[in-house]
Fold each of these.
Amino acid sequence: MTELELKYGCNPNQKPSRIFMKEGELPIEVLNGRPGYINFMDALNGWQLVKELKAATGLPAATSFKHVSPAGAAVAQPLTDTLKKIYFVEGMELTPLASAYARARGADRMSSFGDFIALSDVCDAATAKIIAKEVSDGVIAPGYTDEALEILKGKRKGGYNVIKIDENYVPAPVETKDIFGITFEQGRNELKIDKEYFSNIVTENKELTDAAKRDLAIAMITLKYTQSNSVCYVKDGQAIGIGAGQQSRVHCTRLAGQKADNWWMRQHEKVLGLQFVEGISRANRDNAIDVYIGDECDDVLRDGTWETIFAVKPERLTAEEKRAWLDQMSGVALGSDAFFPFGDNIERAKKSGVQYIAEPGGSIRDDQVIETCNKYNMVMSFTGIRLFHH
């Protein structure tokens, strides 16, 4: 098949729409559903991300994509009992691939709502069972077991989008796209990110552990497929906060940092102990937790709407309790797709437990940024290569 007709483009008024190959056959096969224009953009970007994550780490990888940027990305690592609880996978079989997707989907559950999934490996039944419980648009993988495919075909009343991609497909080295009737052409970004990518350490502290190198690689590969400007926080093999598409880099750092903080706050004993009304949906539970953690909590408790969410009126989290808990977060890796122009980014990163940083360097204020890292005994690597993605 050289082309596939789509229902419409980014919006219903944008017709006709199709995906096609100028030469050769499409490397994808739709096994179920009818993926749309944005679905395919998410699927193909997500597939590149997980393929590179697996190549860099040797571990099965998964990503949760929304609007052509990842909401989460992770490699296979065991889940603690706490993570199993906040990711809603308690009592479920967790194969390595299933663990990777549980992490990718669970880190930022609000952003991942209605995601498009990419998996580095053949989708097994354990992974499909997690997908079946979440609100999602579709999945792309190099293959599916028979049981997994049957599970996925039963989702969304039989209309769930399932795409199989040829894992050996290699695109042309030059890519093009049209904007306003004008064709843009550039070489593909074939940059390989591995442990050697972080060898130029510019801070006084040069102790970059293997786990930190893995997490920095996850951050930078994730940023390679995130709309710029972008910043990514990673801990224990998974992205915990991604700030995408901001015009100011410090706003990326703040946005991603707030998401990382929320991920950590969801593990606080008061959050874990919240009791919800019977029958509340996962999405409403996620929204309620976000409100409880945030500044809106007092309003909800005061106006009585808590009764529609919580079975028992929760005890609020004080600002002091929040800060004390956040101060326990440590060992976080942070990647930036371009240089940090000011030390304020480092100051914000410190509040979210960042200890390791990778960025291209090249700012006229590099000395100020390095000095700020040294103040907090952080390790920072200058990669020398920008990772803008548009």
Note: The chain has a mean pLDDT of 93.
Amino acid sequence: MSDLHHAAERLALVLTENGMQRMTARVFAALLFAEGDTMTAGDLGQQLNVSAGAVSGAVKTLLTVGMIERVPAPGSRRDHYRFRDDAWSTVMTAKNHVIKVMEETASEGIEAAGPDSAAGRRLAEMRDFYRYVLGQTELILDRWSAARAEGEYPTPAP
């Protein structure tokens, strides 16, 4: 096993141990460590020694959360995928939607339970926590964009 393959499998293991589905983690790592610009589901299946069908659910998950993207491949009938250049900030931005929904759901719960009830107090803490996290995430993303623009963390050349 090459050092590159070992590093990719190690990352997949860490992601799996922290809650990501195993195949999703392996596909994620394969695309992240890929030497080429894109890979097809067949390429991923061959590299991971699994069927292309086994890869499809993982690809769908990674597309949904914005970590990878489908890209055109002139002359090919197959879908090609690549790891997004802005994947990390995209995921944080996408997760803002989840955080916002959690905040809104807590607010609805407070309305239903009443603000002075035990449930209402717990839900108020939940709402306030998610409101705080959302605000901090937006600040972090703004600072990240500014740092990139100033060249502190330049985008690596292809």
Note: The two ends are 26 Å apart (CA to CA).
Amino acid sequence: MTKNYPSYLTWEQWELIPELFPEAKPGGRPRTTTCMYPVVNAILYVLCQRSTWRALPRDLAPWSTVYGYFRRWRKDLTWLQVHDKLYQWVRVAASR
């Protein structure tokens, strides 16, 4: 990633959520938790910019990869858990 978009998570926010994502499917190249950071940021870019998946900037992960993860995580409610965890973090940070 070359640019830093306003929708990106900070490393402090990211450290709260990597354990919420399911393990990689068997087979293929092993996945690390840090390689999920650009995917999550690309999803947030689309959601915050109200952009289409195919209009993702080229310096982000490929749109098909990003959309595939988003779709999978939406179906298995991972995305809801991520939202809830980050929502709690914002509330605590705001002393509420």
Note: The helical segments are 11-14, 36-49, 63-75, 78-93.
